[in-house]
Write a structure and sequence with these properties.
CATH superfamily of chain B: Histidine kinase-like ATPase, C-terminal domain
Strand content of chain A: 25-35%
Shape of chain B: globular
Shape of chain A: globular
Radius of gyration of chain B: 16 Å
CATH class of chain B: Alpha Beta
CATH topology of chain B: Heat Shock Protein 90
Largest interface: A-B, 27 and 33 residues
Radius of gyration of chain A: 13 Å
Number of domains of chain A: 1
Number of strands of chain A: 4
CATH topology of chain A: Transcription Regulator spoIIAA
Structural class of chain B: alpha+beta
Oligomer: heterodimer
Largest sheet of chain A: 4 strands, mixed
Helix content of chain A: 40-55%
Structural class of chain A: alpha/beta
Helix content of chain B: 25-40%
Strand content of chain B: 25-35%
Chain lengths: 112, 150
């Protein structure tokens, strides 16, 4: 099917004062997972930047999307680089809590 | 009150591009039935995870079809996701340690979370998988009785 994926999901990046913020919009599911990985890969590898994902306009995420966030957490942790999520909608926070990924985000907020 | 079951059946290509079509249909049917916004969001995740598994594991690289049946009952919605591909072993229901709660980041893996989410978000989940005959996942969510609705 020839869908317009930009309507369904898009990620826009803004770099300011050493922080890279990626704004996600729409539905992050299996069908757009490769696009999201592609956007994130160079950003994740850049240890000089603090990395933030803003989820304010994200309407939906599935376990594929949560899996990508987990892989980013791992990669950034391995580099001792920051990775934060901001403005998480209630429904998505619920999934973060249920799956247990929430605690990894929380520990990023309060590094020991 | 009618006790009969009303069915809506979708046949979709087993590709990731069509999973959102299932969600759109689910939204329409569940909202018509009077499910809350939060209930519908829960069901969207559960149904998508079932479809994802058919898309990812049932047909490998070959073309296949997923059949999604919505059964509208007076007090519940049952959603059956059925494929005719290879059955998958990826959903190991005996392993209840799939969530990340008791893991540290180095040991954390995402495998199994889809199945966990289905179970956590629905009232009843059953998976029947038979070698060579595909997999059928049945998800049931009960309609909460509201005092205000008559």
């Amino acid at each position: 099917m020839n869908t317009n994926k930009n309507d369904k999901f898009n990620a826009t990046t803004q770099v300011e004062d050493g922080t890279c913020t990626v704004y996600l919009r729409g539905e992050l599911d299996l069908s757009v997972a490769p696009d999201f990985r592609q956007v994130m890969e160079p950003l994740v590898e850049d240890g000089e930047l603090d990395l933030v994902i803003n989820l304010k306009d994200l309407k939906y995420i599935d376990s594929t999307g949560i899996g990508i966030l987990l892989s980013i957490l791992k990669a950034r942790h391995g580099m001792s680089a920051q990775f934060l999520v901001r403005e998480v909608p209630a429904q998505i926070q619920k999934l973060f809590d249920m799956t247990g990924i929430a605690k990894f985000f929380a520990s990023q907020e309060n590094p020991q | 009150m009618k006790d009969e079951v009303q069915r809506v059946i979708l046949h979709l290509p087993a590709t990731a591009d069509y999973v959102d079509i299932v969600r759109l249909n689910l939204y329409g049917i569940a909202s018509k039935m009077g499910f809350s916004y939060e209930d519908i969001e829960d069901m969207k995740v559960a149904v998508s995870e079932a479809c994802n598994n058919s898309v990812l594991y049932a047909y490998k690289q070959e073309d296949g079809t997923v059949e999604v049946t919505f059964e509208v009952k007076p007090d519940s919605l049952s959603i059956t996701v059925k494929d005719e591909g290879e059955s998958f072993d990826s959903w190991d229901k005996t392993d209840d340690r799939v969530t990340l709660h008791d893991k540290n980041l180095d040991d954390a893996q995402i495998g199994g979370l889809g199945f966990y989410l289905m179970q956590a978000l629905m009232d009843d989940v059953s998976v029947v998988s038979e070698a060579g005959k595909g997999t059928k996942v049945v998800l049931i969510r009960n309609l909460a009785r509201s005092e205000e609705k008559v």
